[in-house]
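Quick start: what a row looks like.
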Amino acid sequence: MTLHSNLARPTPATDRLERHSMNQHVRTPFDQIPPAAQAGILCNDPRFQKFAAMRCGLIDKQFTATAAAEYLRDCCNISSRADLNTSAAANQTFQTLRTEFDAWTGKIARQR
């Protein structure tokens, strides 16, 4: 086996850096996650739980994740969040709901 003198030998610091970058988690942008997974994340978000409760007339209340999921399924007229991945109509309704939620949180500007 021949070692080339122009190749740097790993040092403990470079070895640790290489291991760190190999194990580094790459975050997928929210818009690139399947709709059913987006819905699951939203239903566990306390802000969405408050938004859903408010939309049901329960001002100053917050739904549980389970109640938020039920609200989402009712809005999208589906029996399972997985249906968001296969039903174009349900997915469109979900995207509209997401836009309304984003406007409510101030993430995007409200329509005039």
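That is the whole record. Residues 88-105 form the longest helix (18 residues). The CA atoms of residues 28 and 34 lie 11 Å apart.
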